[in-house]
């Protein structure tokens, strides 16, 4: 069995909660006691039928105000796959939430109300998922019952959407016409739309092969923790624990330790009490090296070669997430990148992305909550980074406010060696 | 496919491997980013998996932080014995924060009546222990599939200086970049098993061959029916007039305080049958066996806000 991580997006009332409720209910993930409390809650709202959207309602404030506050995670499994849904709400703070949900997703479900077709929100959701490097978008054309299951309406929306997606270079797009409320084309194919010959949504999700997020072919192993048992039995053991971010590491192979620039040989790869011959991206292992080099957390083992990705100045797209502060040029933060945290200064605000027109507005004075901006950042110590487009794990970072310690931005590296600014005032 | 490959056990399940690697990563982040973390261990199935993950994350070194149990004094003997044995086996340091001691010292007051439970009393005792030990992180075994409020909680879940959770004021959590920084007096609850489901936990226990307390397997027990649930007869729960004890073949699906953990009818006497039973069940873990969540739609959310696990 394998795992598929999804993010869902839609405007308020497009039927996202109903859709997720349907997926959970029809795949028999809803237990009897949950169903009983759902029936009570639906009756309390004066509804005759059970409102499946209530399945995904979380907190008290949400139930009272009928809104969704934050990203929630849902789990369901079929005999073929386990699914993790990052359910991100579609209203005000949608950008921040969608960026968060999309950061761990491999596929995005974007809801469209068949009556409204492709609207501003649809374009925004698409732009954000594309920015986050999601390889596959599934556009759910919902509420087909309200347009009389019309094929021509569906074709119209499809043409509209594809025209827009082409401008964004969205990797792969699949469209499914559906009615979440009645379950048409959710788990079972709909009898109301014989003109649609594709699979029902769940069928599609069970089978779809999504390319892995971008990963560099070369080794990227951020050292997370140094293991030194200092017991009699393991007196000389010194292992570098971490999770392989990209590439492959092999026993006997040579690696370069950044920032030291020293090369050495891998003598062992341990995973608990096993010795592995090799490890690849995603494996949480402990690596032992031949030479006694002083390696700490935040160092990185990379493939030998001339192009070690060391930089202390880079450009990135960021999503600003703080609801209390605004980013200005010169702002100082901590950047957390892989397992390394260093001080940084935002050298310049280069542009703001208008997600509706996809145009960039140059030299903004500030970046506020939910803004997507291109910025140039300078760090006090070097980072070992790749561009996000070729390596998700070594091309992403967060900015942390040094006084409140809050996470204020999510960033995707675009250029690790941008041209120098004209009047550069260094640290 | 060769014979050997065909017999590869469930451990090669890629979902479990992914979940394990993710949890190990989180465990190591905690050890690296915090000065004084502790792992909350009750002897229940989730914390057994949690402890196993910690064991693996730092092997061959010992777990570099203490294990802590908030002991209500109303535990199943089998579970307490198991807890002590497992912690000793790992050579870990254990801190017991005792609800009974806090009651004896007059710091908290026992609930009264036949429905009295110490469940809620665990929160002040946990918060006091965090303060006394100056912990900056408490690693817990909670899963997001357990409950609505949990589904919204972060892996690194920030607590203010009063130990409270504010669901509207959580830090965004992206990629694998957990932000463990905090100001003195604040702390973090960390949930490495956030993405696991109940079935994942059982399948992992099975694939790792982990020992679990015997009450998870079917056994004969003196029980009585209350609010549709089977409660064990014990010195800690007094019977109401219409409640009649009887013997039944039961097992536990979750393990907590005897006053609020219910048994389920079962003949599943080994792991394979337990896993099969869980895979087929149509009732949630909390609905079937946690009396503490039955009171209101928001019971868990309210307790979490106060600083509960
Ligand atoms: N007619 C029709 N109504 C739907 C459909 N899907 C959802 N709805 C209704 O649309 C409204 C909003 O749905 P909800 O799932 O709460 O939307 P959300 O805000 O996107 O989560 C509710 O009244 C649903 O019953 C559908 O396929 N057809």
Structure explained in plain terms:
The complex is a heterodimer of chains A (427) and B (309). Chain A has 427 residues and is α+β, with helices and mostly antiparallel strands. Helices cover 18% and strands 35% of the residues of chain A. Chain A contains seven helices and 23 strands. In chain A, a hairpin with a 6-residue loop joins strand 22 and strand 23. Chain B is an alpha/beta fold. In chain B, helix 2 packs across helix 3 and helix 7 packs antiparallel against helix 8. In chain B, strand 1, helix 3 and strand 2 form a beta-alpha-beta unit. Chains A and B meet through helix 2, helix 3, strand 2, helix 4 and strand 9 of A and helix 2 and helix 3 of B. The site of guanosine-5'-diphosphate (GDP) has 16 residues of chain A, from helix 1.
What distinguishing features does this structure have?
heterodimer, A: 427 residues, alpha+beta, 8-stranded antiparallel beta sheet, 7 helices, B: 309 residues, alpha/beta, 6-stranded mixed beta sheet, 4-stranded antiparallel beta sheet, 10 helices, 15% strand, globular, disordered N terminus, binds guanosine-5'-diphosphate
What portion of residues of chain A belong to β-strands? 25-35%
Please state the overall shape of chain A, judged from the principal axes of the Cα atoms.
globular
Hetero groups in this structure are: guanosine-5'-diphosphate
Please identify the oligomeric state: heterodimer
Order of helices and strands of chain A: EHHHEEHEHEHEHEEEEEEEEEEEEEEEEE
Could you say which structural class the secondary elements and strand pairing of chain A correspond to? alpha+beta
Sheet having the most strands of chain A: 8 strands, antiparallel
**Which strands sit side by side, in order, in the main sheet of chain B?**
3-2-1-4-6-5
Which parts of chain B are unreliable, with pLDDT below 50 for 5 consecutive residues or more?
1-12
Rg calculated over all Cα atoms of chain B: 19 Å
Q: What are the low-pLDDT stretches of chain A, counting only 5+ consecutive residues below 50?
A: none
- Strand-and-helix sequence of chain B, N→C? HHEHEHEHHEEEHEEEEHHH
- The count of DSSP E runs of length 2 or more, i.e. the number of strands of chain B, is 10
Q: What shape does the CA trace of chain B take?
A: globular
Task: Please report the total strand number of chain A as a whole number.
Answer: 23
Instruction: Bin the helical content of chain B.
Output: 25-40%
**Residue-averaged pLDDT of chain B, rounded?**
83
């Amino acid at each position: 069995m394998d795992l598929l991580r999804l993010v869902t997006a839609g405007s308020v009332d497009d039927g996202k909660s109903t859709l997720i409720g349907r997926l959970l209910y029809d795949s028999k993930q809803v237990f009897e006691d949950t169903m009983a409390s759902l029936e009570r809650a639906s009756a309390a709202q004066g509804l005759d039928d059970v409102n499946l959207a209530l399945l995904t309602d979380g907190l008290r404030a949400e139930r009272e105000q009928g809104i969704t506050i934050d990203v929630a995670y849902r789990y369901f499994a079929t005999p073929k796959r386990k699914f993790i849904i990052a359910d991100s709400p579609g209203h005000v703070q949608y950008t921040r939430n969608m960026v968060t949900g999309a950061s761990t997703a491999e596929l995005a479900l974007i809801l469209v109300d068949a009556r409204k077709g492709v609207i501003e929100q649809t374009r925004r959701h698409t732009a954000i998922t594309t920015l986050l490097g999601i390889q596959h978008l599934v556009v759910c054309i919902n509420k087909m019952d309200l347009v009389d299951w019309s094929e021509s309406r569906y074709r119209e929306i499809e043409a509209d959407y594809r025209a827009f997606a082409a401008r964004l270079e969205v990797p792969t797009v699949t469209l499914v016409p559906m009615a979440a409320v009645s379950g048409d084309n959710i788990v079972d194919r709909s009898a109301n739309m014989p003109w649609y010959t594709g699979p029902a949504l769940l069928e599609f999700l069970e089978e779809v092969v999504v390319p892995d997020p971008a990963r560099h072919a070369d080794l990227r192993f951020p050292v997370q923790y140094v293991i030194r048992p200092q017991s009699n039995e393991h007196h000389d053991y010194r292992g570098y624990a971490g999770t392989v971010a990209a590439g492959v590491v092999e026993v006997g192979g040579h690696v370069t330790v950044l920032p030291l620039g020293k090369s050495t040989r891998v003598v062992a790869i341990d995973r608990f009490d096993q010795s592995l011959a090799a490890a690849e991206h995603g494996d949480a292992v402990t690596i032992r090296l031949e030479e006694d080099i002083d390696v700490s957390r935040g160092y990185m083992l990379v493939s030998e070669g001339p192009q070690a990705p060391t930089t202390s100045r880079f450009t990135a797209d960021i999503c600003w997430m703080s609801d209390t502060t605004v980013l200005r040029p010169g702002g100082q933060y901590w950047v957390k990148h892989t397992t390394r945290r260093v001080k940084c200064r935002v050298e310049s605000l280069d542009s703001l992305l208008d997600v509706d027109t996809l145009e960039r507005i140059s030299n903004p004075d500030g970046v506020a909550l939910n803004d997507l901006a291109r910025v140039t950042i300078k760090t006090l110590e070097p980072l070992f980074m790749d561009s996000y487009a070729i390596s998700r794990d070594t091309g992403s970072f967060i900015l942390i406010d040094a006084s409140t310690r809050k996470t204020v931005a999510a960033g995707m590296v675009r250029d690790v060696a941008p041209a120098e600014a004209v009047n550069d005032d260094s640290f | 496919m060769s014979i050997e490959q065909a017999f590869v056990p469930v451990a090669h399940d890629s979902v479990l491997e992914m979940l394990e690697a993710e949890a190990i990563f989180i465990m190591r982040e905690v050890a690296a980013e915090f000065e004084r973390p502790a792992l909350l261990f009750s002897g229940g199935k989730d914390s057994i998996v949690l402890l196993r993950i910690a064991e693996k994350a730092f092997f061959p070194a010992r777990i570099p932080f203490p294990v802590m149990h908030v002991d209500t004094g109303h535990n199943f003997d089998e579970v307490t014995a198991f807890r002590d044995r497992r912690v000793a086996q790992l050579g870990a340091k254990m801190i017991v924060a005792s609800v009974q001691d806090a009651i004896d010292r007059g710091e908290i007051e026992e609930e009264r009546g036949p429905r009295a439970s110490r469940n809620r009393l665990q929160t002040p005792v946990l918060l006091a222990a965090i303060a006394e030990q100056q912990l900056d992180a408490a690693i817990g075994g909670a899963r997001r599939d357990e409950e609505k409020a949990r589904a919204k909680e972060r892996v690194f879940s920030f607590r203010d200086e009063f130990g409270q959770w504010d669901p509207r004021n959580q830090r965004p959590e992206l990629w694998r970049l957990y932000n463990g920084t905090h100001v003195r007096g604040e702390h973090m609850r960390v949930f490495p098993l956030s993405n696991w489901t109940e079935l994942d936990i059982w399948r992992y226990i099975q694939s790792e061959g982990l020992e679990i307390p015997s009450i998870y397997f079917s056994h004969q027990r003196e029980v009585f029916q209350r609010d549709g649930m089977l409660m064990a007869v014990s010195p800690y729960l007094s019977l109401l007039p219409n409640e009649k004890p009887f013997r039944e073949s039961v097992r536990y699906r979750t393990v907590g305080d005897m006053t609020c953990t219910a048994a389920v009818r079962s003949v599943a006497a080994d792991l394979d049958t337990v896993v099969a039973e869980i895979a087929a069940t149509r009732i949630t873990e909390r609905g079937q066996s946690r009396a503490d969540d039955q009171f209101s739609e928001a019971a868990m959310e309210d307790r979490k806000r106060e600083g509960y696990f």
